[in-house]
Amino acid sequence: MGVVVPEYIGPYRVLRPIATGGTAEVYEVLDPASGERLALKLLVAVSTSLKRFNREYEAMTRLNHPSIVRVYHYGLHQGHPWLTMELLRGQPAQTMVKRAGRPGSRERMSEVLRVGYHVSRALHYIHDRKMVHRDLKSANVLVLPDDRIKLLDFGAAALLDATERITQDGEFVGTFAYASPEQLTGRALDHRSDLYSLGVLLFRLATGQRPFESDDANQLARQHLHDPPPDPAGVVPNLPRPLADLILALLAKAPTDRPASADQVARELEALHGRPFSSRSRLAVHEPHSASREMEHKDLWKHLHEGPACTMVLVHGEEGSDRVRFLEVARASARDRGWGAYTCQMRPGQGLQRLVDALVAMAQDCDHEAVYPLVEALRTLTGEALANPRDRATLRQAAASVVRLRAAGGRPIVLFIQEIHRADPLAIDLIGGLRRLLHPEETPLKLVASGRSMDLETTTELVRRLGDSYRIALRPLDPREVAVAVGNMLGRRPPPAELARRLHEMTRGEPLYLEEAVQDLVDMGGIEADGSRLAWAEQSMEVTPPERARNNAERVLENLPVLHRRLLEAMSVAQDALEPSVLGKMIGFTTQEVAEVLTALSSAGVVKWGTEHGIRPSWRHPILADIVRGELHPCRRHSLQRGLAAAVLGMPPTRGGIEATMSVGRTRDAVRAAVGLAQKLFARSEVRNALDVLQPVIDRLDARDTGLHVAEAHLLNARCLLTIAPTDPASARSLQRARVIADDLRDASFSARVSMAQARMFEVIGHYTNAAKHVRQAWDVRPKQDTALGAEIASELAHASRRHGDLPKSEQWVEEAIEAAEKSGDLAIQAAANVEAAACQLARGHLPDAERTLSRSMQMFERCDRRVGFLRTLALWSTVLRHQGRFSEALSQLYVRLPESSQCQDPTPYTELLLATAWVELDLSRLGRAQELTDELAATVHRGEHLHLRLE
User: Fold this and answer.
1) Which end of the chain is more exposed for a tag (fewer CB within 10 A), N or C?
2) Strand spans (E) along 594-750
């Protein structure tokens, strides 16, 4: 293999090299399907190490222990095998223990005991599975920022019951400084060889020295074989005697004289500690940056290498984006490449001076006498008012001459201009003059600037002068990317989708705001870790706005004219009813006046509006709306709600309009509009959005409110809650209210749907008998002409019969469901009935038939754009493939669809796909990956919910 870093290895995009050696290379890679980062180990020495590499993968995938690095997948790249494993950011044990204090100090002893305990537990785990590590040393024990311990590098590990040996008798594998006597002499090894290496490790951690030291390998081997180890208490006098004795026992020459097991060592270390070691670790930020921006950096460097000199690259983003940090990283990269890199940090009123300072720094790096008068000219001219055009021209000529002299060596020069939107007109004039005066063929100057996106959306002097710039947008992270970023920051698997959604909602996905919000949650204990997964400490906890975001928002709102403030107040009340005509009616403006104020607010960075953003304005950050709404006087709020309720009459329903209509006492109109909008959202599986529409209405209803629309609102509210939070007591209250109204209405179709919702309520908590009873009630009361409802109920009865083991009855109900679904003409209902048919075929063992039926169902769900139905069917389809032994084919689809399903507002497809994927990984004996998937499932499914999933 060459030294060139590949762009891709298998499906993974290579981000950077981590380590290289004669045998293998390790890279940090990005999984494009999930967005997660992994470590990838690529074998270089195929001819000599292939069997050992394959044995490492085989052994590691069967391990599932919190203190052992997890290995995931295997593949080939141009004939070289690779494996992926969890990406760990940490320090070798000796480095971390050294930071704890001097040898013998209480802090250091506590850390030695803790590290030794967790390493011993990991060793006991692998020894129980007939494996010997054979290369235990400080470099292979990693201490993570959150204090977790990870045992690495099983490339030298031996399986004691292996049918094929990959080392010959007498062949040495390991590290001389840590090797046991029997390992050095090539004798047969067992778990006690690792205990000797553990003794060497503990000696070094406790004393800061190795028991045997020599630059000569043969001499070092002789010491291990024949010399008694020094007493650790003699090296560190205040070392506890019991610890010194344990270390000496581990360093016994004869394996029979060492402790019997690593488990015994762990118990003794815990006894020395005086209290049990916690199995849980604290949360800590492993990676402070939430966005690495690899693609944007790649785009930048492609343009810098291939684009013409003297052009401007403009990197832009909203407030809270990482544009300043982006330029800092790019500058460091330029210096690493041997380019001349200079930075100009713009400040209001100091733009020209900052730019000249950067040019002076450039001049000082020139080894040429001609530069001195140029520096003097720069400094002199800057100090004057520069009102005279001739003086400005002289300044431009002096600046261009400095750049030419600096570029005389032929190396490219990059001038990084931070926050160019703060530059004054003279600074912009000087930048433009440089670009005109320098010839690209002669002077390899590159200009890279950062700026706010809002300043590039309006006609300003900046846009006029730099309109030909090559632009790179630093877009905000989407909810899925937020989840991956949080997991990466905290060194764990991504958090539950709901946590990521709330973080995205509060930060709008801007990296700087996200980083602050995550740090606040960690500091407050809002997130907890259990193994590799993240979860809410308390799900009701609010994600508070980051202080940086709130400060920026308040600064934007300062000193706004009264008319501008009035329009913002109307926007905060209108919520999603943001048509300019509606806003105008709320505050007595004409549509033209609203447009003029919106244009001014867009220029001020308060809202987005105009040709690039559509006719409806939107807030540049949701915190702005929260602040404006929070400062409204109740009387003013009510006045605006009255205006909104009048303005939206006859218009399509919106959440803001519904709340306003409800607030002015038009309950019937509000309920009708809420049900209509929520039904459309629910049909598109936008369950959370539907709930947001319904709950403000439900909260204002009481026992006196009756009628079909009120009953529909309660039923739909319950169905939303049963989907998102099945054990929420509010769902039972809404169902009860819907049932009472249904009994008065004597509407058979509605009564059947209420019974179906009640069945769902019992099903999610595992009361399957009660669930089946309510489904049967729904079947008994349904109107015969409602074939769509009949098909849905029959499908559920087929499912209930199959769950109770009555397969013939289930097949009868499937026939009923398919017949009714075909009569209904509804493609989604037909697909759902076919899924039940496939489930019966699977139960009968008719796997090819089940596969064909499910493939047909997935096509039907795609044709009618029912993503949730498609994903749930995919989970069952993968189960059929798993039973046929087609594991790779199943996983290839599951891992592609898992990230997509995690963003569904209905969590059901994600939980089902997680479980299906865990089963396939378990069948492949990849226990660590299966454990991570079930951990993620446990974080998604709350206690008391979905008993059938928990049982699996």
Assistant:
1) C
2) 607-610, 614-619
pLDDT digits (tens, 9 = 90+) for 37-50: 999 999 988 887 88
User: Is 135 considered catalytic here?
Assistant: yes
Helix (H), strand (E) at residue 867 = helix 867-883
Which tokens hold the place of 334? 């330029």
The span from the CA of 67 to the CA of 71, in Å, is: 13
User: Which residue type does 775 have?
Assistant: V
Helices (H), 491-525: 497-507, 511-524
Q: What pLDDT is recorded for position 951?
A: 60
Start-end of H helices in 310-388: 323-336, 351-364, 371-383
Contact criterion met (CB below 8 Å) for 421 and 452: yes
Encoding tokens for residue 505? 């909602």
Instruction: Please check whether residue 255 is in contact with residue 194, taking contact to mean a CB–CB distance below 8 angstroms.
Output: no
| Residue carrying structure tokens 């909008």 | 677
* Predicted local confidence at residue 170, as pLDDT: 40
3-class secondary-structure state, position 904: coil
Between CA 732 and CA 723 the distance in angstroms is 13
Residue the block writes with tokens 């006690």: 192
Name the E strands within 843-945: none
CB 496 within 8 A of CB 536: yes
State residue 386's pLDDT score.
65
CA distance 515 to 502: 14
What distance in Å separates the CA atoms of residue 911 and residue 903, rounded to the nearest whole number?
A: 12
Backbone angles phi, psi at 765, to 5 degrees: -105, 10
Residues of the chain with confidence (pLDDT) below 50: 1-2, 161-173
What is the pTM assigned to this prediction? 0.83
Helices (H), 576-621: 580-587, 591-603
Which is the catalytic residue, given 135, 194, 357, 669? 135
For residue 652, give the DSSP letter: P
3-state helix, strand, coil in the chain (%, to 5): 60, 10, 30
Gap between the Cα atoms of 569 and 741, Å rounded: 39
Residue 480 and residue 902 in contact, taking contact as beta carbons nearer than 8 Å: yes
Q: How far apart are the first and last CA of the chain?
A: 45
Angle between helices 748-764 and 787-803 (to 10 degrees): 30
CA-wise closest residue to 408 among 353, 445, 380: 445
In contact, 858 and 877? CB cutoff 8 Å: yes
Long-range contacts of 179-188 (CB under 8 A, 24+ apart): 179/221, 179/224, 180/224, 180/255, 181/224, 181/225, 181/253, 182/255, 183/134, 184/221, 184/224, 184/225, 185/225
Please give the helix or strand (H or E) that residue 71 lies within, else none.
Answer: strand 71-77
The position carrying tokens 């002289």 is 394
Instruction: Name beta bridge partners: 535.
Output: 528
CA distance 791 to 813: 9
> Which residue is listed with tokens 């980062």?
37
Sign of CA dihedral 500, 501, 504, 505: negative
Cα–Cα distance measured from residue 270 to residue 120, given in angstroms and rounded to the nearest whole number? 11
Cβ neighbors of 391 (< 8 A, separation 6 or more) are 381, 384
Say how far apart CA 364 and CA 361 lie, in whole Å: 5
The torsion of the CA quartet 759, 765, 768, 772, rounded to 10 degrees, works out to 0
Task: Please give the Cα distance from 352 to 289 (Å, whole number).
Answer: 32
- CB contact set of 437 (below 8 Å; sequence gap of 6+): 396, 397, 400
Distance CA 105, CA 583 (A): 69
Q: Which 3 state secondary structure label does DSSP give 41?
A: strand
